[in-house]
Design brief:
Structural class: alpha/beta
CATH class of the largest domain: Alpha Beta
Helix content: 25-40%
CATH architecture of the largest domain: 3-Layer(aba) Sandwich
InterPro entries: Myo-inos-1-P_Synthase, Myo-inos-1-P_Synthase_GAPDH, NAD(P)-bd_dom_sf
Protein name: Myo-inositol-1-phosphate synthase GAPDH-like domain-containing protein
Radius of gyration: 21 Å
Strand order of the largest sheet: 4-3-2-5-6-7-12
Family: Belongs to the myo-inositol 1-phosphate synthase family.
Number of domains: 2
Strand content: 15-25%
Organism: Streptomyces fructofermentans
Shape: globular
Largest sheet: 7 strands, parallel
Distance between the termini: 16 Å
GO molecular function: inositol-3-phosphate synthase activity
Number of strands: 13
Amino acid sequence: MSAEPSVVRPRVGVWLIGARGSVATTAVAGCAAVTAGLHPPTGMVTETPDFADCGLPPLSALVFGGHDVVDCPLPKRAEALAAGGVLPPGLPSAVHAELAAADREIRIGGPLPGDTRDEDDLVESLASDLRDFVGRHGLARAVVVNVASTEPVPTGSALPASSLYAAAALRAGCPYVNFTPSAGLHHPSLATAAGSSGLPYAGRDGKTGQTLLRSVLGPMFAQRALAVRAWSGTNLLGGGDGAALADPAAAAAKNAGKERVLADTLGTVPEGEVHIDDVPALGDWKTAWDHIAFDGFLGTRMVLQTTWQGCDSALAAPLVLDLVRLVARAHEAGLSGPLGELGFYFKDPVGNGPAALGEQYARLLGLAERLRRPGGRDGVPEVRR
């Protein structure tokens, strides 16, 4: 009796922009830890029963690489994150081989200070790195994910760095996810290229803390017919994001998504604004505080206050892994254009869709159903040997 043929899963590339940052390092280390059974997939929506049999690539099939302009090796970055309490003690050494392998696939990005290349040359250089990555590893596809620091809102026609990387993804034939509030594919100069690429894309600005709460609480007030008079907030955070958001222009780009969630769920923009303060001592940890003034029956004035204390990288990394798996599967299934069903993950989603988290989750489940294939255990194409 002959033995059953072995099943070879197609491998999928994960190309991270900002590949040596905290979120990227946590995603690489976390993927390795979950794959090895060292930790459960806490925070990964795609590992819940609702997403079984969707044909998503397994975590073991993901191959990591990326672009960055810093040179701190991933194993060292992981050690620093463990020292700060972001990664569990001992995890960097347990997954050292996987971190080192990903680090070998990181290429210098751009534009660098004094770079004389024009936009087309820069885009071609970045796209060439991507094509080389896919070819050398024999990947079925690669998903580009922007997890770099927030940029100011661009002015003029010149492409900012995030949009150069996005253009390179399109040129290399790779689906794209913008996990930041930076322009990326939102830049007007890329609208035509994105629309004609035939590629799926998603974004922007991952929803991990304060805005996640707002997308739940805003609909609550609206559905209970409670009149919100003012909604103010403060964010205290350190690390690379804290330093980047100390720039008022970058902070404005970040806050735009937070304000849009309230406008969309409440139907109006209440008084108040969000202040973002850089506190370097906090490192990768953040505290977000909201003060909500609202009116009840007969004009009775009331207040709700919320405090969210979390680790930004540990909140973001499982979402990045979710998005890679969903977008890769969407690409495999022939979907293209903005994946509005992934609005569940973003402050400022592409495409049309609701802003309330419950409605967004229902749309995400609809996408999961679209990705399922009749017959077969999980719908993943098999190569038998």
